[in-house]
Amino acid sequence: MDSEPHFAVTKFKITKPKLYKMAIIKDSIRRLSPTLLYKNVVMFIVEICFVIVAVMAIDPSLIPEVSSISEVPFYIEVAVILILTVWFSTLSDSIAEAQIKNTASTLRKIEKEVPARKIVSEDRREISEVTSKQLKKGDLLLIKKGDVVPIDCEVMEGIAMVDESLLTGESVNVRKSVGTTVLGGSMITSDSIIARVSVNPSDTFLNKLIRLVESSSRPKTPNERAVSILLAGFTAIFSIIVISILALSIILKLGLDLSVLIALYVSLLPTTIGALLPAIGISGINRMSEKRIIIKSGKAIEAAGDTDSLLLDKTGTITRGMRTAIEYIPLGKHTKRDVGEAAFMSSWDDDTPEGKSMVELAYQEGFVPHEFAIIERIKFEEFSASTRKSGASLQEASEFFLPKGGKGILQHKRIRRKYDPESREDEIDIIKGAPDAIKGIVKTVPLNFDNIVDEAAKSGDTIMAIAEGGEIIGLIRLRDEVKPGIKSRIASIKNMGIKPVMITGDIEVTASSISREVGIDDYVSRAKPETKYDLVKQEQSRGRIVAMIGDGTNDAPALAASDVGIAMASGTEPAKEAANMVDLESNPAKIIDVVMMGKQILMTRGAVTTFSIANDVAKYFVIVPVMFTAVALSSLSKLNLLHLTPHIAVLSALIFNALIIPFLIPLALRGAEFKPQSAMRIFLKNVFLYGLGGVILPFAGIAAIAFVITHLGGI
Amino acid sequence: MKKSNSLTVPIRIALVSLVACGILFPGVVTSIAQLAMPVQANGSLISFHNTTIGSSLIAQDFNYSGFFQPRNDSASGLDPDITVQNATQQASKIHNVTGISMAYLDSIIKENTKYTLFFFGTAYVNVLDLNINLAEHYPAIYDRYSV
Amino acid sequence: MITTSAAFIIVVEFGSVLIGGWLLSSYLLKVYSTKRTRLDRIFGPIERTIYYLGGVNPYEEMGWKAYLRSVLALNAVEAAIGFVLLLYQGSLPLNPMHAPDMSWSLSLNTALSFSSNTNLQHYNGGSALSYMSQMAVIQFLQFTSAATGLSVGIAIFRGLTGKTKGLGNFYVDYTRTLVRVLIPLSGVTALILIFLGVPQSLNGYTIFKTLEIGGSEIVKSGPIASLVSIMQLGTNGGGYFGANAANPLTNPSQITNLFELAIMMLIPTSLPFLFGRMLGRMKEGRTIIVASYSLYFIDLLIAFIPITHIGQGMEVRFGAASSVFWTVTTTAFTTGSLNANLSAFNPLVILAGFFGMIIQATPGGIGVGAMYMLMYVIMTVFIVGLMAGRTPEYLGTKINASDVKLAIIAFLSHPIIILIPTVITFAIGAQVAVGLGTNSLSFTQILYEYTSAAANNGSDFLGSAGNTVYFNVSTGIVMWLGRFIPIAVMLAIAGNMVQRKRYASEALRTDTLAFTAVLIVAIFILAVLTFFPFLAIGPILSYLEGFKNGF
């Protein structure tokens, strides 16, 4: 109980691609080709500028009005920096794509070939042994206890417990009944099932994810499109400005050199955001896949960032989704101790969370039977999904033995036969399970049993009945516990201005006490399957962006209606079809990470855009005062805040402009730092960091570069 | 719902506006002004010896060097005022030409000084005010020059 | 240097403008609401008569396209009326001074100028216009263009507040603006101006013998007060005479000077308050008024860096400081009436004027100033709003790609229609015809001409010298494009937004002072980014060189 099993995420070991990897370098150089580059308008223009300056360097006499033969070395320097600027941009694309391919190949390793039993005859007697790769959609499989499920399939017959730890890293058994999906890679731990393959091997979610991350053609998200339009607008404005300056300079004889004007142009163009915009989008998908979330559309990531309302299932998200015993309730003449001891005995070999918790509670209350050591548990009946009960048969043993697990407090106790010494019967069955299931198999049922059970269940707890020797001796109250750490996560959600809404089938009392405990103000109790859909619609009608998770077919309409619908990979096929994200780990609490990641992507895009535009102010003040060589420079040089000579000023600004791209690649790939705070606080922090910083940093950066190149000499 | 005819409506509304804003409005304002405030409405005309000698608002040319001279470089070219500094400079010249005592000249400048309300508070005087004052008090000097 | 009395006057001036604007906004809210008010009893019959005469169905709700179509159609017809009246003014009545017909290009320029609320004048009104033209062209178009601007502003407010189905009905807004706002306010203003000494007559120009024997002067009296009132109230600019508000007959004293300034600032100041009232959230209005006024005060600071002394081209009765103050204000409110000659000023005053015309929202012209401010808000919200980690929202609706595109088009159109004709002018040497060369001062004057035209300001260096076919036609085109491209685009944004649902959300809050500060900086940076190189070789160079010609 000390760890956080439900938040545990199996970390992929994703090796970060190294900058010096030849493949990345080669790819980035391939991307310099205009036929590939034209999609990135800003960078395409920079490349055209490179060509113009390169031509000037080769033959300055082509355009004598705005170039001079003595400036050829300068033209070469400018041309080199320009093509480097473009290359830095393609490099960031290449790194982002290399990273995502890396993720894909790591994911691919999970997918192994697994043997499968394919049912080939009508009467299901004939079975052929095949491998998972040979399966196709619609095939019927027999999967037995201990088998690894070869591929995603839907249970047709039988009920089984399934261990999905291979996929999710959590060793919790999940009950799978007819109609549910078992995932390829999970393991059947009880019973056996007949299942129908629901996807072709090439369409598994894993494969879908790999294909998504590998495909280079990614539709732009709405915000990305808006940012692109903004960049196009700024590009147009600066193009008009530069063309006007060029024309005026020629007419008014201002002595402008075209290479300097191009340097101004390229410095002003939003090259930083232009270069990094694609990488920001790709890295978002990559970070999602690192968390094993398949995104069906990039739009959903942005919507996740905009989430206003978060619909949380109580069970599994807020609570552990497993019940622990909290009280023993005796019935009839029996005492609390009788119930506790019986529960202890019957649960000793029970490895389910419920069973373990009963032993624990018995310890705490001191209900450990003195006879424990001499009683031999001759048979243990595991909990079965179909019978909904478990039990143990006990017999007096002849010798002492120590309880397993080193629970040493019992070691030297004298053992006294508790059970009726006169009885010939030396075998006692203790059975526990759902009250109605137990009722059906015992000899004596206490009076008003149903009423007592109902009364006990009013608080919202789960009630189990326990029978000893064919007689119901008491009830066990179990409660689903709140996950550790959930309270602080709810607080983070509320800090971000998101309203969490808890949904539970529980009665009002339970719902209100749990929601109060974790700090949720809104909850819906006694929710029916369709309640989720109604709630999504109701929240949306108030203009709120709704995120939710779901797994059952019941959830499909709500998932489809919600703005961000995350289906558990363990969920049903309709649910996964309806959702726009699928969580391979089936960890409902991850929705919170998805929201934060969505915000981070939006923020990164905004931060780099603002930074890019803010940079222009400094570049203007560096280049414009030295631009018109025929104009009284001494006058305009009063604006030359850094007091740089024309060549140094232009080169420093250009170098700064180019270097800032690789400098910011890590930011683009990693995302801007994000803490769950209110939108306004995040905004103000970023305005200072990227807005004000964007105005100031280039002055410092350009001055530093100028210092370096001045002292390197030779320029 | 009946839509306004997009062809005739603009023309009809434009004509209504023309009559209302371009004819009726200035017409009504003029009528009220002429009835209620005829002096201002007709340009704040000023009289000297029962003769109207123009508007007090606009500068008049003076050739005789015994008169105060208006500025002739200003935005409207009609600026009727000069700064007190300028008037004081002109006073000594007028004193030389006409022999009118500096004390008197200074006193009429002072009497007629106005201040700009704004910031740096330039003090100024109206040239015509000064000259009418001179012409009234020194008819012997100015009768030859004034109406 | 600021004396106590000067400070008192400044406080009274701005105080009365702000209080007046605030009070007016509550009246305007009633004017443009569909709810019945007591005023309907007075104005209702007049308006119904106008709807009847005009064939308007006042219950028709317009989308942005219908609204824009009506705006363009009505303004085109009105400009055409103005054009024809000027072209044939010589043969029309009310022409006691026998002003001749105007040339086609000057008629065109004047009609386009006044119908676009620019009021750039390439003629000398005192001699080139008949009484008929001063009234039925100039005053008529000053009323209609102001009514158009205010109506469009209201329609855009409606779109952004999203409380109506459509943007309203242009003809209803226009009629109500005239009947309930502009005509009554202008009437009162005109009477006050007359009381303070501004002439109002139709008696023709009179020649008087002046004090000195042999001297004479023409008193060019006319329907001046009625023109000045709407010229200032409707942020039109221009003037009865060439010298605008410097002429003693249009601005006879310091009191009229302060009064005329105040009425010029009144309506643009009231609109942010009105916006807040329409939204039901005064704080959103506060963002706009604080941002506009802060930028306006930055303009004033730039202009007051150099100490200006009374000199050539200024009127003694106003003094230097108030001449600078007027010039900055008239550009900040894109009115463009001048009380001094632009050549009289330090280049920094001109620079401040440029800023007013580049930004156009400080607080800008009637109706359109608030419109431009909303354009900046949308751009700023989008650029910096992403940094809050959410899709940017304004007034409870998300800013989408199409809004960004439209706002960018509106913003982009301004530098295009200024820079391209400026370049063409020098490329074909058209500046020579107005006595300019290829130096920095000439460049400033040409750049100013097109900036003023594009911003629908109307102040200029050229004056009647600009009466060449080239300048008449080119500035005419620029004035109309500068007027109606942003109006069309902003109406489109408003039209797209009006149907979107509004929700309170936790996104970036635009009603905070923190956002207002970011907005101010963003606007300033956008303006600097667009025009810095041109201002550098224009007024900035002149300033740094100490008034020399430059280059």
- Average predicted local confidence, pLDDT of chain A: 79
Tertiary shape of chain B = elongated
Overall pLDDT level of chain B: 87
Number of strands of chain A: 22
- Computed structural class of chain A: alpha+beta
What fraction, in percent, of the residue positions of chain A are helical?
Answer: 40-55%
In percent terms, what proportion of residues of chain A is strand?
15-25%
Number of helices of chain B: 6
Report the radius of gyration of chain A as a whole number of Å.
34 Å
Major sheet: arrangement of strands of chain B: 3-5-4
User: What's the overall geometry of chain A?
Assistant: elongated
Largest sheet of chain A: 7 strands, mixed
Our count of helices of chain A gives 24
Descriptive overview:
- The complex is a heterotrimer of chains A (715), B (147) and C (551).
- Chain A has 24 helices and 22 strands.
- With 715 residues, chain A is an alpha+beta fold.
- In chain A, helix 19 (556-561) links the parallel strand 20 and strand 21.
- In chain A, helix 3 (41-58) runs antiparallel to helix 8 (258-268), helix 8 (258-268) runs antiparallel to helix 21 and helix 23 crosses helix 24.
- The longest helix of chain A has 39 residues, at 72-110.
- The model of chain B has no long low-confidence stretch (mean pLDDT 87).
- In chain B, the strands form 2 sheets. Chain B has a 3-stranded antiparallel sheet with strand order 3-5-4. A two-stranded antiparallel sheet of chain B has the order 1-2.
- In chain B, helix 3 (84-98) runs antiparallel to helix 4.
- Helix content of chain B is 50%, strand content 12%.
- Chain C is built from 17 helices and 4 strands.
- Chain C has helices at 4-31, 40-54, 64-87, 104-115, 125-128, 131-161, 170-195, 224-233, 254-279, 282-303, 319-332, 347-359, 368-385, 401-427, 440-454, 469-498, 513-544; strands at residues 206-209, 216-219, 393-394, 397-398.
- In chain C, a hairpin with a 2-residue loop joins strand 3 and strand 4.
- In chain C, helix 3 (64-87) packs antiparallel against helix 4, helix 8 packs parallel to helix 9 (254-279) and helix 13 crosses helix 14 (401-427).
- The longest helix of chain C is centred in the last third of the chain and has 32 residues, at 513-544.
- The radius of gyration of chain C is 22 Å and the shape is globular.
- Chain C starts with a helix and ends in a 7-residue tail after the last helix.
- The mean pLDDT of chain C is 91.
- Chains in contact: A-C, B-C.
- At the B-C interface, helix 1, strand 2, strand 3 and helix 5 of B face helix 1, helix 2, helix 3, helix 6 and helix 7 of C.
